[in-house]
Known about the structure:
Elements: H1 8-63, E1 70-74, E2 85-93, H2 111-129, H3 133-138, H4 144-163, E3 164-175, E4 178-189, H5 198-204
Antiparallel strand pairs: 1-2, 2-3, 3-4
Helix pairs in contact: 2-4
Amino acid sequence: MSRQGFTLLEVMIAVAILGLSLTAIFSSEVGAANVAQRARRQNIAATLARCKMGEIEEVIAIEGLPALEKEDTDNCCEHAPVEGFECKWIIERIILPEFGTEEEEDEDESAQDASKRQLTEAAEQVSQQDGTPQEVIAGEAGNLAMLALQLGFPILKPFLEEQVRRATVTVEWKEGDAVRGFDVIQYLVSEQPAPIDEAAAEEGS
């Protein structure tokens, strides 16, 4: 005897399989939409960060580097603000590390004595290696380039610190209850020569 149609159990199994399939499809669609929305927000945030950094560069070109730290919070791009996005920015001085410091170095030794000692050690090293003048100039018979850097860096260090500033722009926005954001850092160099300290110049002469 042949039967027609489906039993109730078969219909329930088919509906369950269809429900699971639709749930997986809809979940993937929602996930893709969330990823696309997050990518769109990040793209907007990157554009706003570039805009804000450009505004900072323009202000620095007109007013020059700030003597001290300068910071503020605003809507990122002044001429095209976007609702929901906020920029925190700061311009700060840089502190270069000391070059060639050694733990075993005598703390009572002055910078001038240390320079003389290093120069003497380098001269002895070159004389022991019996290098030709060409090799000495090329640095093959001694570490003269490193010595020159060690002697010149303390003089250049204040000048470099005065002429360079680090600008940091932090873009933040909300995604639900979470706050997301990222930092953009750029080093700004003054196009104007560093001011001469007349008192220091007179003491040096």
